[in-house]
Amino acid sequence: MTRDVVVHPDARVLAESVAARLLTHLVDVQSHRSPVHVVLTGGTVGIASLAAVAASPVRDAVDWSGVHLWWGDERFLPEGDPDRNETQARSALIDALGEALPAENVHPVPAPSDDVPTPEAAADAYADTFAEAGSPAFDVLLLGMGPDGHVASLFPGHEALTVTGRPTVGVHGSPKPPPERVSLTYDAIRGAREVWVVAAGAEKAQAVASALRGAPVDTTPAAGAIGTERTLWLVDIAATETLGTPAALSTTPAAFPAAPETGPELWTHVDHYFSVLAPEDAALVDTRHAATAGGLPDIAVAANQGKLLHLLAQATGARRILEIGTLGGYSTLWLARALPDGGRLTTLELEPQHARTATDSLTQAGVGEVVDVLVGPAADTLDRLIAEETEPYDLVFIDADKQSIPRYLEQTLALTHPGSVVIVDNVVRAGAVIQPDHADERVQGVRAMVELLTRHPRYDATVVQTVGAKGHDGFALLRVLD
Ligand SMILES: C[S@@+](CC[C@H](N)C(=O)[O-])C[C@H]1O[C@@H](n2cnc3c(N)ncnc32)[C@H](O)[C@@H]1O
């Protein structure tokens, strides 16, 4: 997913520009959608931007009765405390809007009270408010960023970074006072249509550079702030000083050279650099989010691998595709989108909950009609498909329990035709596969596959090892022979 970067001469112009952009965006969105949901941020530039909105004559072009205001995070301080983001936003903008903005459209994070004694209680109450509003996708989510790379109240190394399945979280021990806060989670942030990260000042430069180079989110949380339709970085020139020469500043992070590191971090940066070639649209992002929100493990293919599957399916002209291992339907969606008219995809999944999540996402993505999600142990389902004399598949993607790969390969022969292509994922397993006595049965499953393929009369095969955001692994590419 690319990030657009717009550089401004200084913090004052940046705040004016954020205000102008926000007002224009609100007017644009209101021409085709209402209500509009905006998430506000605190911080010097964030509040200056709100003051600039209040001072702009363009503010009267917005129908404020159709605008809802939310906050990305809040300090767990009493109502009216001058350090609350809400208090600052009220005096910078909300009070100035007066009756044009109905009070019920303003959704502050609850302040401490007898009913809301802890940040967790405030987070729960805020999540309830969000749910009551229909859990809207935020149209614009404004985020400031700290010098440590934090956004909202998601701080480096903090456990709030890993919270999924809910939109808000109570935060304790914030390195920036006060220690108790409430924050949106990544789930909520990444559900926003547009995420705008606003950063000014040389003290932010290191964090801006790290985030735009795709640093891991646990060290630079801002790197994970991504919108479903657009991610926009609005910065001043001082905040870009470690990004390289002005000529290197471009509208995509691809122009920023990766730091000279080795190992997994570098692989992730390189994947990030090439991610412009495998952009995810909203449906792919939603499919990933739905899997995370459903508590499914984070073991889907990466976007570049999904694109590889898509291209292979297209290149082989596959009309019928079989997938073993659906999870939340992410690779399924990449594959299904490669089908020609009249094509079909069958995907097999053991876990009913995974299958349900996938079915919902695939339906949402508009490919539900061409995909059959079959639930149960894949070996049994494959036997059933064989017994039913199912029409042969042109492409097979095997991505389930690795110990069963040899069996799946034998069953696949009865379900394909000469020339069919088979891909088997995760066959390198960080190199463990070269250890003959490795205790992991998945490693032994891959070794048994290699053993089988060295003498198999009906498969021709190769294995390519890969490194990237998913670590060190690889895939086998097989062709079915006569
Ligand atoms: C690595 S995930 C699949 C990821 C998916 N292909 C993607 O990239 O989006 C493996 C999936 O296989 C499923 N699985 C494991 N054992 C299985 C079995 N015996 N039969 C069918 N599915 C199985 C797991 O429940 C899990 O959802």
Termini separation comes to 42 Å
User: Helical residue percent?
Assistant: 25-40%
Q: How many domains comprise the coordinates?
A: 2
Q: What kind of assembly state do the chains in view correspond to?
A: single chain
Give keywords.
six-stranded parallel sheet, Rossmann fold, binds S-adenosylmethionine, alpha/beta, 2 domains, elongated, seven-stranded mixed sheet, single chain, 482 residues
Report on this structure.
- The protein is 33% helix and 20% strand.
- The chain has helices at residues 11-30, 44-55, 85-97, 119-132, 186-190, 205-212, 264-274, 282-293, 303-315, 330-336, 352-364, 378-387, 405-413, 441-454, and strands at 4-8, 36-40, 67-71, 73-75, 140-144, 168-171, 181-184, 194-199, 230-236, 320-324, 344-349, 371-375, 393-398, 416-425, 459-468, 471-480.
- By secondary structure, the protein is an alpha/beta fold.
- It has a seven-stranded mixed β-sheet, with helices on both faces. A six-stranded parallel β-sheet has the order 1-9-8-5-2-3.
- The protein contains 14 helices and 16 strands.
- It folds into two domains: 4-264, Rossmann fold, CATH 3.40.50.1360; 282-480, 3-Layer(aba) Sandwich (Rossmann fold), CATH 3.40.50.
- The structure holds S-adenosylmethionine (SAM).
